[in-house]
Design brief:
The complex is a heterodimer. Helix content of chain A is 77%, strand content 0%. Chain A is mostly helical. The longest helix of chain B has 39 residues. Helix content of chain B is 75%, strand content 0%. Classes of the chains: A mainly alpha, B mainly alpha. Chains A and B meet through helix 2, helix 3, helix 4, helix 14 and helix 15 of A and helix 1, helix 2, helix 4, helix 5 and helix 6 of B.
C-alpha cells in the first residue's frame, strides 16, 4: 500500500511539474511494476499494453464521436441552437438565460466538452443577453453552469474513457446519463427562475417570437436534433421496431453519428476538402492524445493493483467497519477538493483506478458510480475558488470579475448539489434506463 | 535552418493525411456495415478486424505530430510560477527530451514482441493478416515519436528562434 501512495504522490508531483499526464502515469506505473517484479516483466507489460490497447475495438468510439461533434460544429450549430431556444423562451423573464441553458445542453450533447461549450456559448449568448440588459451575474453564470452539462449528456467522451478504464459498458453509461443530464437542465432552469424571482431586473423579458419565426428557427437545427435522437435511440434500442430494426453498439452509433453529421455538413455546403482535412486531422490528434493518456492510466492502474492498494483500502474499510455511505461521502469530498486543482479528465484518470475497485466491492453499481463521478466533476467546474468553466468564461468575456461570476453561479451550484443528493438517494435515476436495455 | 523547419512541417502532413484518410474510411465502413446489416442482413464480416487496424494507424500516425507540436494533455497549474522564474522554455525543453528518452525502452520491447509474433507466424482470425505488421508499425512510429520529442526539446534548448512561428 505504501508503494502505491508514494506512486500516487510521484504522479501528482510530475504532473504539477508539467510532465504530460500520460507520461507521468506511465513512468511511475512502470517504475512501480519494476519494483514489484523486475525490469523485463515490467517492460513486457508496458509493450503488450501499447500493442493491445491501440487495437482496442472499444476505443473506436472516441474518434467517431469527436468527428460527429466537429462536423456538426462546422455548420455553426451553436448559434442556431441558441436562436431556436430563444424563439421559444426569450419572452419569459430570464428567458434568454433559460435559452442559454437549453442551447448549452444541446451543444454540449454534441460537442461532449464542457470547456468548449462554455467558450463557444459565451460568444453566442453573451452579446444577446447584454443587449437585453441582463445582469452580468446571471448571464455569465448561466453560460458557465450550462457549459458543465457537456460531460454528462451523451455522447460524452469522458464517459467513454471511464468505460474503457473500468471495463463498464459504454452503451449503458451513455443511456444512464440521459435522466441525470435532463434533470441537470431542468434544475438549471429552476435556478434561473429563482434568480429572476429574487432579482427581477436581472433578466428582463425579451420580445415574443411568432410561431412562424419559431418554425423558421427550427429549420436550422431539425436535422442535427434528428441525428442526435437517431444515435441515442439506436443505442438504447428504441429504434429496434418495425420496419427498421436498428440497434447500435456504441461504435456503430458513433459511426452513424459521424457519417450523418458529415452528410448534413455536406448538404448545407458547410464543408470543403480543406475543412474536411482540418476536422479529420484534429480528430485524429485528439484521439491519439486521449489514447496515450489511457495507456498511461492503464499502466499506472496495473501497478496500483499489483501493489495491493485497492485490497488494502478494502481491508481498512472492513477492519474499521466503515459504513459504505461514509466511504462514498469521503470519496466525493476528495473529488470536489481535487476538482479545485485538476481538470475533469486528469482527475478521473488519477482517481478511478484507486477508487473503482473499492466502490464496486462495497456493492455500488459501476454504471451509477460513473455517472456520480461525472456529476461531481461537473460541480467542481463551477466550484470556487478555481472552477475552470468560470475562468474560461472570464477569459472570453473579459470585463466581468470572477467574483461576479461565482456569485451568479451560486444558485446553479446549489441545484447541482441537490442533483447529486438525488442521485445518491435514488440510484434508479441513473440505473432505470440502462436496466431496460 | 528555417527551411528544415518548413520541411518538417510539410512532412508532418503525411502522417496526418494517412490518419485522416483511415479515419474517414473507418467512418464510412461503420456506416455501411450498419446499413448492410440492417437492410440486407449482410454485414461486413471483417469490420471488427479492420476497425482494430484503423485505430492503430490513426493513433500511431498522429502521435509523432502531436508530440512534435507539444500538444500532449498536461496540467498547467504551475505554468505561471515556472514562467515567473524565467524557466518556461528550458523547462518545456527538458520535459520534452525526458519524455522522448523514456520511450526508448517500450519501443524496443514492442520490436521484440513483433519479432516473436513473426517467428510464431501469428495471423489475424478472419483476414489472416500477419499480426507483426501492426506491431512493427507501432514500434516504428514510437521511435519516430521519440525522435520528435527529443528534437523538439533540443531545438527549444539551443535554437528556439526557429520555432517562433509555431511549434513543430
Amino acid at each position: 500500500m505504501t508503494e502505491s501512495l508514494i506512486g500516487f504522490a510521484a504522479v501528482l508531483m510530475l504532473v504539477l511539474l508539467r510532465m504530460p499526464i500520460a507520461f507521468a502515469m506511465a513512468l511511475v506505473g512502470f517504475v512501480g511494476l519494476m519494483y514489484e517484479r523486475n525490469f523485463k516483466a515490467a517492460i513486457s507489460n508496458v509493450a503488450r499494453l501499447i500493442i493491445d490497447a491501440s487495437q482496442d475495438y472499444g476505443l473506436s468510439v472516441v474518434p467517431l464521436f469527436i468527428l460527429m461533434g466537429l462536423f456538426v460544429n462546422k455548420g455553426g450549430i451553436a448559434r442556431e441552437l441558441y436562436q431556436v431556444s430563444n424563439a421559444f423562451l426569450g419572452h419569459f423573464r430570464g428567458g434568454l438565460a433559460m435559452a442559454t441553458i437549453l442551447a448549452c445542453g444541446g451543444f454540449a450533447a454534441i460537442s461532449g466538452s464542457s470547456l468548449a461549450t462554455a467558450a463557444t456559448m459565451s460568444k453566442v449568448a453573451m452579446p444577446q443577453m447584454r443587449r437585453f440588459n441582463y445582469s452580468d451575474r446571471l448571464s455569465t453564470a448561466s453560460i458557465a453552469a450550462g457549459g458543465t452539462l457537456g460531460i454528462l449528456i451523451p455522447p460524452s467522451v469522458i464517459l467513454v474513457i471511464y468505460g474503457l478504464l473500468t471495463e463498464t459498458s459504454i452503451g449503458k453509461l451513455f443511456v444512464a446519463g440521459i435522466i441525470p443530464g435532463g434533470l441537470g437542465i431542468l434544475l438549471y432552469l429552476v435556478a434561473v427562475r429563482w434568480t429572476v424571482w429574487r432579482e427581477p431586473n436581472a433578466g428582463p423579458a425579451g420580445d415574443r417570437a411568432t410561431w412562424g419565426d419559431r418554425f423558421l428557427a427550427l429549420k436550422g437545427v431539425w436535422a442535427v436534433l434528428l441525428l442526435f435522437f437517431l444515435v441515442i435511440g439506436g443505442l438504447y434500442g428504441a429504434l429496434n421496431v418495425w420496419p427498421i430494426y436498428l440497434r447500435f453498439s456504441p461504435t456503430e452509433a458513433a459511426g452513424m453519428g459521424a457519417a450523418g453529421a458529415f452528410l448534413i455538413a455536406l448538404a448545407r455546403g458547410g464543408i470543403n476538402l480543406k475543412g474536411m482535412f482540418e476536422v479529420l486531422s484534429e480528430t485524429a490528434m485528439t484521439t491519439a492524445s486521449l489514447f496515450f493518456v489511457l495507456i498511461g492510466a492503464w499502466i499506472f492502474s496495473n501497478f496500483v493493483n499489483l501493489a495491493g492498494l485497492p485490497e488494502a483500502l478494502r481491508s481498512a474499510v472492513t477492519y474499521y467497519d466503515v459504513p459504505p455511505w461514509v466511504v462514498m461521502a469521503m470519496i466525493l469530498a476528495i473529488y470536489i477538493a481535487l476538482g479545485c486543482v485538476f481538470e475533469s479528465l486528469s482527475m478521473l484518470l488519477l482517481t478511478v483506478p484507486i477508487f473503482f475497485p473499492l466502490v464496486t466491492s462495497l456493492g455500488y453499481d459501476p454504471v451509477w458510480f460513473g455517472i456520480v463521478v461525472v456529476v461531481v466533476t461537473e460541480i467542481s467546474l463551477i466550484t470556487p475558488p478555481v472552477g475552470l468553466n468560470v475562468f474560461v468564461l472570464k477569459g472570453v468575456v473579459g470585463d466581468v470579475t470572477t467574483g461576479t461570476i461565482f456569485r451568479g453561479v451560486t444558485p446553479f451550484w446549489m441545484v447541482d448539489i441537490l442533483r447529486l443528493a438525488l442521485l445518491l438517494a435514488i440510484p434508479a435515476l441513473a440505473l432505470y434506463l440502462p436496466s431496460q436495455m | 535552418m528555417k527551411n528544415l523547419v518548413s520541411l518538417t512541417r510539410a512532412l508532418s502532413l503525411i502522417p496526418l493525411g494517412v490518419a485522416s484518410i483511415v479515419l474517414f474510411f473507418l467512418m464510412a465502413m461503420t456506416f455501411m456495415d450498419v446499413l448492410l446489416r440492417s437492410a440486407f442482413n449482410n454485414p461486413i464480416e471483417a469490420s471488427t478486424e479492420l476497425t482494430r487496424f484503423s485505430m492503430a494507424i490513426i493513433v500511431f500516425s498522429s502521435l509523432p505530430v502531436l508530440s512534435g507540436r507539444g500538444e500532449h494533455i498536461s496540467v498547467d497549474l504551475l505554468d505561471g510560477v515556472i514562467a515567473r522564474l524565467g524557466l518556461d522554455r528550458i523547462w518545456t525543453a527538458l520535459m520534452s527530451v525526458a519524455c522522448g528518452v523514456i520511450l526508448w525502452w517500450p519501443a524496443n520491447r514492442v520490436v521484440d514482441l513483433a519479432e516473436r509474433s513473426r517467428s510464431y507466424g501469428d495471423l489475424t482470425e478472419y483476414l489472416q493478416i500477419p499480426t507483426f505488421y501492426v506491431s512493427w508499425f507501432i514500434a516504428i512510429m514510437t521511435f519516430v515519436t521519440m525522435g520528435a520529442l527529443v528534437v523538439r526539446g533540443l531545438t527549444l534548448l539551443f535554437v528556439p528562434s526557429i520555432l517562433e512561428t509555431g511549434d513543430d
